[in-house]
Amino acid sequence: PYPGWSPQQPGGAAPGGPAGGWSSGGWDQSRAQHGWQQPSPGQQGGWDRPAGPTYSGPADPGGQGGPAQGGGQGGGYGQPRYGQPGYGAWSSVPGSGWRAPDVKPGVIPLRPLGVTEILDGAITTIRRNLAAMLGLSAIVAAATQIVSAALLAWVFGEAITEPDLGLSDAEALDTLARGVPAALIGWLVTVVATVFLTGVLTVVVGQAVLGRDLSIGEAWRESKGRLPRLLGLTFLYTIIYLSPAIVVLLLGIGAVALGGAAAAVLLGLAGLAAIPVTIWLYVRYALSTPALMLETTTADGASRPIRVFESLRRSATLVRTSWWRVFAILLLILIITFLIGQVVAVPFGVPSMLGTNAADDPVTWYVLNTLAGIISATITAPFAAAATALLYIDRRIRREGLDLELARAAGVDLHGRGGSGAPPGAP
User: Fold this and answer.
1) Mean pLDDT across the stretch 276-297?
2) Residue 22: closest CA among 404, 413, 414
3) How far apart are CA 281 and CA 243, in angstroms?
4) Mean pLDDT of the chain
5) Cα angle at 206 between 201 and 212, to 5 degrees?
6) What whole-number distance in Å separates Cα of residue 47 and Cα of residue 302?
7) Where exactly are the transmembrane stretches of this chain (predicted)?
8) Confidence bin at 237 (pLDDT 50/70/90)
9) Domain count, the chain
């Protein structure tokens, strides 16, 4: 029910799309199918051809075509034809005096986005998909927090209920022996659940851009085939951007073994140098998750989701010419999510404001902290996922003219008419 945006297929029809296909002259063919004609020299009226790259179309928005073949996933964003020029907007014929309005079939206008539009689009997506965004986030947050809380209660239960009770050395070692694997299990559960949640939420955002709202079940069906790859991508991405810190850690182990002031100084300098490299790598590959969840490519004439290394390359390509802007927006998203978490935690800090501390009622304190974590994650996870996905879409619009493909997938034209694409008053 949610057709994908399949990749370029020269000389043939897009999988599941209308007959005729999109070849090197795909835009002219598409116009002819809708009754559009390229104006002859000197003829008034018509449209200028956009400067963006040529894309193959998705399955027919009206529902006659099926989803993209081969990948088994709907809602994919087709990969661009590399080497084509970047974003170029449609324009009216000189002298017509008509300015095209913004086209907004979903949560964002189909044009390059400003920072506030990215943030507003994330909030609008959450508001229009409360069940899929907040509901799913609440389920995942509650499950992970309860599992972590149960594991910690199992390990430190006596210390929580009776904080004044001292432990012998043997009891302390036993607690530590249970605590390490329990903490590791809780961390793994949280990571896997968060990765899957981010992937599902990204698919919801991709459909919200087209004006389609998904239920939790629909979002899961659209995304489940790509989630195992997303887990592998997250692991690889973490290793990549933490690699400078890993190198410094290994150097630190060697410095401790060798000793001496010179080794300590070199270790400190290496640590300082690792910080900007880590940030650079983090930003460079930050868009790999939405790329993996939303893009498709072609293999043996059939459409399929892109793979892990392909998504990393796609992120590097999209970020390459606008690293500082992507960095600034990601930093802003991080700051906003941090502030939201702090605001959510305020009501749960009322007991401490009234002079009550954890030692007075440790069980209540523990429960309040768990509830604060659930509510905070329920709000911040969908916002961060939605904003990052919209940043990815903005980069593709700016570099690759994705707005043209989005408009076609949404069943509208870039002049907001939703029909033949002719300007107001045109025959």
Assistant:
1) 96
2) 404
3) 9
4) 76
5) 100
6) 33
7) 130-156, 184-210, 230-255, 261-283, 323-345, 365-393
8) very high
9) 1
- The pLDDT, as a whole number, for residue 160 is 60
Residue 82 in any domain: the answer is: no
The two tokens of residue 173 are 């070692």
Quick check: is 24 in a domain?
Answer: no
> pLDDT band for position 186 (50/70/90)?
confident
The three-point CA angle 285-286-287 to 5° equals 95
Gyration radius of the chain's alpha carbons: 26
pLDDT band for position 62 (50/70/90)? Answer: very low
Tokens 């698919």 correspond to 203
* pLDDT category of residue 151 using cuts at 50, 70 and 90: confident
pLDDT of residue 148: 86
Bigger pLDDT: 355 or 345? 345
421 close to 38: Cβ distance less than 8 angstroms: no
Residue 15 covered by a domain: no
How many residues make up the chain in this entry?
427
Pairing of strands 77-78, 295-299: parallel
- How far apart CA 78 and CA 298 sit, in angstroms, is 9
Extract the tokens encoding 378.
């329920």
DSSP assignment string, 121-149: HHHHHHHHTHIIIIIHHHHHHHHHHHHHH
Check whether 69 has a pLDDT greater than 60.
no
Q: What is the dihedral of CA 178, 179, 182, 187, to 10 degrees?
A: -160
Domain region containing 286: 119-405
Which two tokens mark 328?
């600034």
∠ CA 263-264-269 to the nearest 5 degrees? 95
What's the maximum distance between 2 C-alpha atoms anywhere in the chain? 94
Q: Which residues contact 71 (CB under 8 A, 6 or more apart)?
A: 4, 225, 296, 302, 303, 304, 305
Identify the pLDDT of residue 19.
34
pLDDT band at 76 (very low <50, low <70, confident <90, very high): low
The rounded distance, in Å, linking the Cα atoms of 204 and 136 is 11
Distance between CA atoms of 148 and 170, rounded to whole angstroms?
A: 25
